Amino acid sequence: MGPDLALLTPEIAVLLTAIAALIAEMLRRPRISLVVAVIGLLVATGLTLRLVGTDTTVFGGSFRVDTLSTWAKLILLPATVLSMLLARVDVCGSAREGTVYSLLCFATFGALVLAGAGDTMFLVLGTLLTGLATFALVAYPDTDPATEAAMKFFVFASVTTAVMIFGLSYWFGASGSTLLADLPGMDTMPMAVILGFVAVVVGLGYKASLVPFHFWAPDAYEGAPLSIAAYLSVVPKVGALFALTQVVRELPADSGWTAVIAGLAVLSMTYGYLAALVQDNVIRLLAYSSIAQSGYFLLGIVAVGSSELALPSIILFAAAYAAMNLGAFAVTAATGRTLSGFGGLGRARPLMGIAMVIFLLSLVGIPPLAGFVGKFMLFAAAIDVQFTWLAVVAIVNSVLSLAVYLRIIVPMYRRGESASAATDPSHGIVVITAFAATLIIGLAAQLFIV
Amino acid sequence: MLPLVSLTLFLPLAGAVLILCLPKPAARTVHSIAIASAALTLVGALAMWLQGVSGQGFSQVEELEWMPSIGAAYRVGVDGISLPLVLLSAVLFLVALIYASSLRDRPRAYVALVLLLETTAIGTFTALDGILFYVFFEVSLVSMYFMIAGWGHEDRQRAALMFFIYTLLGSLPLLLAILGLYLGSPEPSFDMRAWIADPPLQGAAAMWALIAMLITFAVKIPAVPLHTWLPAAHVQAPTVGSVILAGIMLKFGTYGLVRFALQMAPEAFRDAGVVVLVFGVVSALYGAFAALAQTDLKRLVAYTSVNHMGYVIVGVAVAALTLDPSVRATALDGAVLQMFSHGLVTGALFLLVGMIQERAHTREMGEFGGLLKTVPLLGWSFVLAAFASLGLPGLAHFPAEFQIFLATLGTTPIAVAVILGIAIIAGTFLKALRETFLGESRQRWNRMPDLSLREILAVAPLLVLTVATGVAPSWVLDIIHRTTSALVL
After folding, report:
1. Does A378 touch chain B (CB under 8 A)?
2. Same domain, A343 and A237
């Protein structure tokens, strides 16, 4: 037990941070709540550094402390801190401000549980933990659109999670165990394998907003405070995709799961960008773009178990995605939610304009930015396992994505308009951090390839 | 030992960063810094030229670890094929910046983009690592998009968008080919030298990789039928953009055709050589006929580029098809020299068209007449450049095209039909000269000023080099030949 807990110090730190932030809020000290949350999460990140290179499991194999879960902490904890800084602008001065910080910590804790899941019950636990915290976060403004968005989100999540639990019962029945490591034992029952897998894909696919389980995402993003939308598009999503990776690692290669994943990848990428092409609301546009980006993750997941490039590519793209997507949301937070809000931004605020261009080009996958190295590795992983056609589809979608993101870039440099970007130091900090990360991850990708 | 290649490569970028870091600089300062860094880059390129190349493989190689676990590294170096293109880039960017030094509309962002383009151009030609090459190749695209979108003419947004999407769609197949070469390598590495020494793909895989590369480079060159972005982009691009686009960026395509397609998939290229040859012939003829039909001077020059690049494709295809090493060397000598000459001549032509447009605000040939009398310096410069472009002996294109035709004649005589292109281009330019510069001078252009010192400084170096290359091509050819004659496919 002792050594197990030592390996879990980062998770424990996150949990204690969440509780401490909540206590600070009960004492009506939202400022302290924020400070405690930020420091706590940074300390947890620091505690994780010690674990880099560890590859073991705790609690009898039910939770994994491996490359994937370690990197999940290194990526998601700083991403949560950045979301929190954005959230400060949205909720500062409102009632129960501190609960937002606390809920963010709880939701991140859930995402970390997902990313390290070694047991089907941890999948359920993680999904519920992130779910419950994020419903509340979406509903926080207490306005009609927010409540509606949270309601949709809640109903959708309940149904998909129920389907997942139902499917997991097949796996339990077939393998006699809830451990993921025991899944290969189901070789003799291919139907059970694939049925359970489809159910898991439903449950995790909703959280990762993969098509066709994405319907909640644009509505929830639009109704929620912008910072919460930014958070939803990164932390729970990456947690769910890492969890999916943990699951497919154990599945027999010939059970047909790769076809399911490849199909979802095509659907998510193509539908996401096609839908983004016709949005006028930047939040909805970014929501659909994040749906498409989830599809790209699947190129790496399809190669899990057969290619050495799979895990590094997923981790690298997760880091890149977190940086560039949070950056794009942060700029949007400063300009407003409509495309016309971006008119003339590049001329009025050149630095913010350059940062936005960098984030969007990185989302397209233009070198030498973070998104490029991420996608490059993902393509390599897919081609390595003979999914060249999938890489071709992804490439065609990258061109489509250029058309999507240029819809934001083009008005930024139009003459005779001046965007009125609200300046808050928090936006500045997030934009600069994300900007630096987008460049550094692109140029120093070696750090993330493990 | 100074890392000459890296210095030359990153000097322009350093200049751009310096300009962006200055707080509210005057336009003059901006232009001076830009010209100074481009001039230093030229000094670097000349120093590289003096170092020269050894016949075997690459020279002046510089390496630095980057992503060791996937075998990617910062690797740069030159051989006889890339060195002339590096020199061409250094010259052309310097004169472009001299020409642009009168610009007052957001000069900071403009020259920073030009300098960024210079780094990507030299980087594309010197990169010896698959990822590094692709990075430079793509960044050039982004910079050019912003240049057209920000400083182009009336319909610039649409043209820039078309350019960006077209060429991005075009360049992504190369990414697949690079990944294919990487995954096919016995030892996972992005080292282009290894890919050239021992082509990693065989059979069908090599053919697919070749097709992917051909798509990418055909868009970039551009070869018919993937050329449709070119006239639109040129017509809308600012003059400097056109100079760089035609003078340098088209060479990314032809350079890639040699470096990647020919050197990394030689057997597949030999099998597909006839197809490539046909595309080359069609491009050359189509470009010539299309140029003949133009009334807009800039579009005319743009289409002659399609024609000239068609000859390069023919030369490379012949080099792939022939089994005789000396014929191959001749074909490649011609192809590489053609790239170099085209950069000089077309650069000069686009600059001169830009100067005419700046004065007259139109490029329609029908509206001019007798300009040779009103603006003799500009007129005679244009005449010289036009004669060079139509392949007059003694000027830059002649030795290049001559060698390409010579090699073609020895290998696939039928393809010499392409020589017709020269006659048509001659007709095109003679018609243009007659309408624009000869005949009655019109009243409305009587007060047109002749070339200013800035403009002379921009055009003269190109014309001098055009003559020098035409009269004594050996100063370039020696370097090229050292590599092409030792090439093993």
Report:
1. no
2. no
